[in-house]
Amino acid sequence: MKKIKKESSSESPPSFLSLPHDIVFNTLARIPRTSYPILYLVSKSFRSLLASPGLEAARSLIGRPEKYLHVCLNLNNKRNPNPRWFILSQGELIPTSSFPYKHLKSSSVVSTGSCTYIIGGEIVVNGRKKGSKRVFLIDCKTHQWRKLPNMRLSRKQAVVKVMDGKIYVIGGCSSEYSTKDENYGEVYDPNTQTWEPTTPNLRSKKGYYSSKICFLDSDSFCSTRLSSVELEKKLWFVVRDGELRCGGLSWWTTVRGLKAILSSNDLISVTNSGQDRRVIVWWKTSYNAEECETEIWCAQILIGIWDQKTVNGFIEWSQSAFTFQGCHRDSEFILHSALVTHAY
């Protein structure tokens, strides 16, 4: 009599997608959006989940805060004559509410929480260029603009930083005020909505592009200058001659490993990404079809181990972030950038 062999049945472990949807959504909601491009590659089911309204509901429910890049673009063409603010989300630029006031050159920008502040700027009075006292705020949760109390002094290209929940504004005023003058700096308290003078303990050093890097109580300030980002203490990134460069006060070198995007493009700007050891670089392409069309591209770069001779970068993702009709003629299109934190 033949013995019947029992087939060994080994059940495969349950998959993540076999869990109840509320558990799946609650888990995915705790993963940063910046990891979504990787999850998209897992399967069609994951792509469907990541685009599901249920996931958005779960994110809102737990109120998970994330950092988002808030940028002001100067598209500078007939169809887009005024600067416009955007939020960079999942590699795409999402427009926020239009700025309802006149945009001033040489204003300073800083953010805290979900709010971005636009401080001072250049105005022309009787043919002479002067600073402005005005201050505006946009709350990226509600996308609402509002005007704040004026500063005590008119300022343009001032140095700004948030410390202990207050906004410090240094310099950018008339040359009649010295660094020792109590009016050289002022501080804004969002709780009381008042400005008070402050005399910071400043010492200045010459930095790249002759811009100033200042220090206040061991916390670094930097002037609002286009295409410059402080990734870690005493480590700066700038775009020069279409390349990403990295350095400190006494050394600079080109970031390697970016040939995939540099072979046919010149970089224009670099901004903070809100993530450790990462920056976002920007460039544009224009197509002369029946009507000129311009694409704004960005890529996230992970910075590897560096020394004063070699800095390596790794392209984590690269994609077209925004397309508009018309040709953009200016080389620089990012006027301001700031990181805002909220559940978006």
Automatic annotation (TrEMBL):
The gene is LOC108815398. SUPFAM superfamilies: F-box domain, Kelch motif. Residues 16-54 form the F-box domain. Pfam families: F-box, Kelch_FKB95. InterPro entries: F-box-like_dom_sf (IPR036047), F-box/kelch-repeat_ARATH (IPR050354), F-box_dom (IPR001810), Kelch-typ_b-propeller (IPR015915), Kelch_1 (IPR006652), Kelch_FKB95 (IPR057499). It comes from the Eukaryota. SMART domains: Kelch. Residues 87-212 form the FKB95-like N-terminal Kelch domain. This is F-box/kelch-repeat protein At2g44030.
